[in-house]
Design goal:
The structure is a single chain. This protein is an all-alpha fold. Helices cover about 75% and strands about 0% of the residues. It has a domain of about 130 residues: Tetracycline Repressor, domain 2 (Orthogonal Bundle). The protein has 9 helices and no strands. α1 packs across α4 and α1 packs across α6. The radius of gyration is 18 Å and the shape is globular.
Length: about 190
């Protein structure tokens, strides 16, 4: 028997997610109170606390869910097998860049405010988990025998740093980011 989702609970979750994104697009998440968030979502503070512990935690859940949808799309492309490795990597990087553009207001506040370091750390953590999953499945003969967790962190921090540089400089285009990340991708990342 499948579990049914209460439509009211789903609406409340969507309202909270939309509210945190709207507020974090206006100001750093570190400056969003539970009262602000509950008011914007049209719920009580108790309802918020039944779902999350902080605006940062909720925002990270929303951002990770969106990034995960991009990874699912990448997996479907990989399963089809009709693209070259370079095309798949380019599209995967573009998906992340699209995510950054969808949430540009959030990232502009978060990446520029030291108090919101949690967003950058969550981005690095997301990329590190993705890199470890990729490495665990990698059969490329050039995959180094070095510590894979360290490799995953290196890749994650490098990609997050490239994104931060792109977001901070209006002269750097999305294509610049994609080209640079693709150029820096290791040979075994295919």
């Amino acid at each position: 028997m499948s579990e049914r989702v209460d439509p009211r609970a789903a609406r409340t979750t969507r309202a909270l997610e939309q509210a945190v994104v709207e507020l974090a697009s206006q100001r750093p998440v570190s400056r969003i109170t539970i009262a602000d968030l509950a008011d914007r979502a049209g719920v009580t503070r108790a309802t918020f606390y039944n779902r999350s512990t902080s605006p940062l935690e909720l925002l990270i859940q929303v951002l990770n869910a969106d990034l995960d949808r991009g990874h699912e799309l990448e997996e479907r492309r990989r399963a089809r097998g009709d693209l070259s490795a370079e095309q798949r990597v380019r599209m995967a990087i573009s998906e992340v860049a699209d995510h950054m553009e969808r949430f540009a207001g959030v990232y502009e506040h978060a990446l520029g405010d030291p108090a919101d370091r949690g967003i950058y750390e969550a981005l690095v953590s997301h990329f590190a988990h993705y890199a470890m999953a990729f490495i665990d499945c990698c059969t490329h003969p050039a995959l180094p025998e070095a510590n894979h967790e360290v490799i995953a962190q290196f890749v994650a921090h490098g990609f997050a740093g490239a994104i931060q540089a792109w977001m901070a400089d209006d002269g750097v285009t999305k294509d610049d980011l994609v080209d640079a990340a693709l150029a820096c991708a290791p040979a075994w990342w295919s």
